[in-house]
Structures are given as structure tokens and as C-alpha cells.
């Protein structure tokens, strides 16, 4: 995220056209553009809708921050770039959702990302779980991407036009995240004995956090037609992952279920450290820009 | 082609990447990458070479499958057209409406 102000008109006018000579494009880091659905006309979220946008935005933001830690450390340079691309997609979703959430309380996306403390975050415990080894990161991606794909597919029909527009754009990107993690689940599970052992361990470690993803918190009851009921996504989620796990010859782990509570600000022990790293620069230099 | 396990470095095979930027144009070589197999090679190509709207189609080819001309035989290979402008079709006028010729 950038500290600059949002000014769509000048950003579009100044943006260089993509010409064959300039195939890779120029990127100006001091200019931020938001998607059209967020800048055309005033669009303010009600407190309940803002809370829901915060849930989804925080999931994307925390997961993106986690994936960023792989840059320069992935098993191969190509995978470094692939995970970085996924993180950038998620940052895009987080920006749109947090921007919208902020309209209810006159706060910017940066206010929400950098100036809230741990109890004010609404992320799921699943996205807070550490990167672990590559298999853990892939297992977490596999679960989250399949969940987000089902979520955004349905959120496109939301009665809230802004949420629907954000979902319509995000669903294509998480579709690719789904594909990317699926390819790796298949390869790790059917690669060497060591890669298979690690893939199984990763799923066993992360599965306790799946239950919280599909839990219906009370807010959902107040947002009928606007929010997507998480429990309603479970059948589609199960149906989508079953053939992949079958092909990979993996079984859905069973065991204990973690307490959860991310949606009410009760977080795992990992979030505070992640926030400290993510927020330290902004807090050390308030208002600084590139 | 190097396969994982062949050497201590366990390097993935090399693939050459061709991207078509628009319908009607040819695929153009844009670079190379490493990938364990052709499925992931296409994914990696998408991530490395098309994320700023450069392409509508991607090809990957195992680098080992490409046979090249010998750089040392440049003279014998490429010298003969020089100075023979009658080999060029520059005396024809192009019909209107023909793009990409």
C-alpha cells in the first residue's frame, strides 16, 4: 500500500500508454489508482457492511504480508515470482476492501492497515499461521484459494454493488491462485517420499483452522443478501478439493478443531509479531511518503 | 536436459518462452525460465512474462529441443543475400488494408 492520496483522474491521464516499444510498462510508485467501482460516485458502507469488508480485507492483507516473506527465499526464482504475484493480487483485494470499510468511519485504507492494533484485526487464524516450509505455505494457499474462489463467486451477486464489483474482479485472480496451489499439492504429494511426508504434515498442521473459515458469526445474520453465509460455501469447497486430494492420494485430516475467534479480535499468537513487522515503518515515520 | 537429482544443484530444466501480444501477430521469443515440467512451465511463463498485459497467448518449448545455427558459421550462413537487392520484394506496392506485412 502506498501513503499517497487517491487521485484517479490525474493518474489515468499521466499513465503512459502501453505501446509495443514499452511492452513491460512503467510503474509509478507514487501514484495509486483504485478500481473504478470505488471511485465513481460516493459509496459509503454501513457499519455492518464495513465490518464485513474488514473481515475479508484483513484476510487478504495478512495472507499477502505472509507471502511477501517468501521473496528471495522460495525454492526457485520462478516460484519466488509466482508467490509474489499472488501476494500482489491479495494486496489489491485488501486495498479495495479496506478502502470501502474505511468509508464508514472516515478512515483510509492505510489507517486501517497500519494504525489498528491486534484486537481490532478481524483475520482468520488460518491466514495467520506461519509460512512453515514450502509445503505449509502451499497447503495454506490451497485451502484459502479454494475458499476465496467459492466466496467471491457468490459475492458477485451481493446486494451491495461495491462488494459485488470487488468480488467480480477478485474471483478471476483467486481462480489462478487455486490452480497454482493445486499444481503444487499434486507434485509435492506425488514427488519424493520426503515431499509427500511434508505435504501430509502440512495439511495435518493446518486443517484444525479450516472449521473457523466456514463458521457463521452473528454479523452474517444481519447482512442477509449482502454477505455470503460462510457455512453455505462448505459443500462447494469440499466438492472442489475432493478430486485434487484423491488424485494426490491424500486424505482429509481429522483431529482437533482450533478455537478460532479471529472475527471477534481473538487471534493466534502469530499475529502480533506479523503486525509489528508490517507496521513498524509507518509508526516510526508517521505520514512519510515515497 | 538436466533433471532434478542429476547433479548436486538439482536444477530444473530450461524452457524458452514465446508470447503473442495480440491476435494476428506471431509469438515472439521473450526469454527463458526453469520449470520441472511443461504444465508448470506455462504457469511460470504467465507469472514471469505476462503480468503487465503483454500477452494473449504463451508457448513454452524445452530449450534442449531447439536446434540453432552455428555462430562460427555466420559467414557461410548469412553472407549470400548481402548486395543482392533483387532478392527483396521492395519493388511491389502493398495493397491497401493489408496489415502486419
Automatic annotation (TrEMBL), chain A:
It comes from the Bacteria. Residues 1-23 are annotated as: Disordered. Pfam families: PaaA_PaaC (PF05138). GO terms for biological process: phenylacetate catabolic process. Gene3D superfamilies: 1.20.1260.10. Residues 1-10 have a biased composition (Polar residues). GO terms for cellular component: cytosol. InterPro entries: Aromatic_CoA_ox/epox (IPR052703), Ferritin-like (IPR012347), Ferritin-like_SF (IPR009078), PaaA_PaaC (IPR007814), PaaC (IPR011882). This is Phenylacetate-CoA oxygenase subunit PaaI. It comes from Cryobacterium glaciale. The lineage of its organism: Bacteria, Bacillati, Actinomycetota, Actinomycetes, Micrococcales. The gene is paaI.
UniProtKB/TrEMBL annotation, chain B:
Gene3D superfamilies: Phenylacetic acid degradation B. Its EC number is 1.14.13.149. It is an enzyme of class 1 (oxidoreductase). Pfam families: PaaB (PF06243). Keywords: Oxidoreductase. Transmembrane segments: none annotated. One of its GO terms (molecular function) is phenylacetyl-CoA 1,2-epoxidase activity. This is 1,2-phenylacetyl-CoA epoxidase subunit B. It comes from Cryobacterium luteum.
